[in-house]
């Protein structure tokens, strides 16, 4: 896979919002724009040539770093871009000298959970009914990954972490 990863800035806002519209991680556009200007947050972008095809948003916490969102356009999934972004996130968190990287993921997002587990993340807990139902046109549903839904169609969040050594 021939991709490059770099930190995004405010000039990348339109491309970032386009990727998020495709990936549908659930991060609101206002929060994405704010993250680009926040010195306590890194927004990393994965490019093929000059085209942004994926991103990861990670924030500094007092002792940890937290992955707030990660998204890859549907046509690029399963080709290693998510893994490349996660490696860049781990590098950033280590450079910040954080102890752990935290994240949460929809319980039904088996592809993401498998990626995180391969990268050394362990499940720490679960938030019951945390996420609202996935929209019928969500890319994950189109790609054969139906969400596991509970009461009133809501979905659990898995809390995961990895120690940064």
Automatic annotation (TrEMBL):
Domain of life (superkingdom): Bacteria
All copies of domain N-acetyltransferase, residue ranges: 3-139
Pfam family, one: Acetyltransf_1
Example of a GO cellular component annotation carried by this entry: ribosome
GO molecular function: N-acetyltransferase activity
Protein name stated in the entry: Ribosomal protein S18-alanine N-acetyltransferase
Disordered, as annotated region: 127-153
Sorted UniProt keywords: Acyltransferase, Cytoplasm, Ribonucleoprotein, Ribosomal protein, Transferase
Record carries keyword Transferase: yes
Family: Belongs to the acetyltransferase family. RimI subfamily.
């Amino acid at each position: 896979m021939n991709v490059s990863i770099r930190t995004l800035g405010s000039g990348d806002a339109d491309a970032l919002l386009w990727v998020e519209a495709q990936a549908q991680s659930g991060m609101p556009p206002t929060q994405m724009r704010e993250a680009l200007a926040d010195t306590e947050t890194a927004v990393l972008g994965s490019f093929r040539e000059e085209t942004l095809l994926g991103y990861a948003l990670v924030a500094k916490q007092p002792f940890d770093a937290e992955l707030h969102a990660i998204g890859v356009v549907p046509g690029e999934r399963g080709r290693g871009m998510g893994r490349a972004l996660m490696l860049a996130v781990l590098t950033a968190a280590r450079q910040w000298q954080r102890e752990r990287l935290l994240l949460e993921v929809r319980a039904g997002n088996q592809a993401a959970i498998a990626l995180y587990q391969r990268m050394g993340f362990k499940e720490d807990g679960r938030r019951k009914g945390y996420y609202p139902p996935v929209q019928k046109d969500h890319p994950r549903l189109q790609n054969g990954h139906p969400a596991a839904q509970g009461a009133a169609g809501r979905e659990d969040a898995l809390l995961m972490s990895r120690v940064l050594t």
